[in-house]
Specification:
This protein is mainly beta. It has one domain. It contains 1 helix and 4 strands, in the order H-E-E-E-E.
Length: 65
């Protein structure tokens, strides 16, 4: 059995997701801090967008102020 503390670890942490556009494609982004976000998921209806390397989940992007 897996201890309950391991299964529920991080459940109470606040999630920092936001919706945005990367390379003209709607994406879900995760705030990383220091002006950076990372792509969490692609929210496009165009299947070709899921094959674009520049939209790969985990890619870090700098957002200037």
């Amino acid at each position: 059995m897996i201890p309950e503390s391991i299964v529920l670890a991080g459940l109470d942490e606040k999630c920092s997701l936001l919706d945005g556009t990367v390379e003209n494609c709607p994406c879900r982004l995760r705030w990383q801090g220091d002006g950076f976000v990372s792509i969490e998921s692609v929210c496009s209806t165009d299947p070709k967008d899921f094959l674009r390397a520049e939209l790969a989940p985990g890619r870090r992007i700098f957002l200037p102020k």
